[in-house]
Design a protein that fits this description.
19% helix, 6-stranded mixed β-sheet, DUF916 domain-containing protein, single chain, Immunoglobulin-like, elongated, alpha+beta, transmembrane helix, 21 strands
């Protein structure tokens, strides 16, 4: 019996130790999240990146490179496709960090004299296992830095707005619309960061409100399209009645290129109007009833006075 009690007690304590004992989780933080450069052929870029060991164990990190594209606004990494930037970026083969240690790692980007003009893109992965081949890394934990590089020359910055409308594509609204859709397509050979605003004006050209477009600096790679984020400027829509015009002004590129589009919509605040009609009806019938009672009271008084 004592032996059975000892075995059960030992098993319980062992299980409790396994559950309670801290587990060292391998984790790494890198910075910055993205880097943008506009350079000439033959130029050399020098900068630093930050690596932080967030775990309680010593770690060795290895860099690896992947090409990435965007599909419907989401980044897709393509390890099987070569990226020119992998040959241009010079980094240490590995970096070792003590627990909670932070290091600044210098690197260079050497742009060839005959580098193709336009955009070049890559993600620098820092992983806890060495690369297994070109563009491949065996991942235990990894964190990446996006690199956007534009080489000067015959750069095509063509782009277009595919759609601009209020959310729902309606013309009649019960209140000032809060959501708009701006669909942007980059048809050039470099990346674009379109920005602008939507101005809402009344028929007298007075500005009612404005919305920021792409305030989070979303970057569009060549041959990609997606909806831009629209930043609201009010928590509660202002009272509006009548015909209004929404004007989109969007800018992108080095020149910069710009485009203007506009839509019209009509606001009829039917809820407020219905409430007003009900209030007026109550006031009208209440006043009418009050006048009738007052007249009856006057007649009664006159009869009582013998008039």
């Amino acid at each position: 019996m004592r032996r059975l009690f000892f075995i059960l007690s030992f098993s319980f304590l062992t299980a409790a130790f396994i559950i309670i004992a801290p587990v060292s989780v391998l984790a790494v933080t890198v910075g910055p999240a993205k880097m943008e450069y506009r350079v000439d052929p033959g130029a050399v870029v020098e900068n630093t990146i930050i690596l932080i060991n967030d775990s309680g164990a010593k770690q060795t990190l290895w860099p690896a490179f992947e090409k990435f594209t965007e599909v419907n606004g989401e980044k897709k990494f393509r390890p099987a496709e070569p990226t020119e930037l992998a040959n241009w970026i010079k980094l240490p083969e590995s970096v070792t960090l003590e627990p909670a240690e932070q290091k600044r790692i210098p690197f260079t980007i050497e742009i060839p004299q005959k580098a193709p003009p336009g955009g070049h893109f890559a993600v620098i992965w820092w992983g806890t296992a060495p690369p297994q081949g070109p563009g491949q890394v065996s991942i235990v934990t990894r964190a990446g830095i996006l690199v956007y590089l534009q080489v000067s020359g015959q750069v095509n910055e063509s782009a277009e707005v595919l759609r601009f409308s209020a959310e729902g594509k309606r013309f009649f609204w019960g209140k000032m619309p809060e959501s708009f859709v701006v669909s942007f397509r980059n048809s050039g050979n470099t990346y674009q960061k379109p920005q602008g605003e939507i101005l809402i004006k009344n028929i007298f050209k007075g500005k009612i409100v404005d919305f920021g477009v792409n305030d989070v600096n979303v970057i569009f790679l060549p041959d990609t399209e997606a909806n831009l984020r629209i930043a609201k400027k009010f928590n509660k829509p202002p009272f509006a009645f009548g015909l209004y015009k929404a004007e989109l002004v969007l800018r992108w590129g080095e020149k910069p290129e710009s485009i203007k589009k506009s839509i019209w919509f009509f606001v009829f605040p039917w809820k407020q109007a219905l409430g007003g009609i009900i209030a007026l009806a109550i006031l009208f019938f209440g006043l009418k009833k009050g006048i009738r009672k007052y007249n009856q009271w006057i007649i009664k008084k006159a009869r009582e006075s013998g008039i």
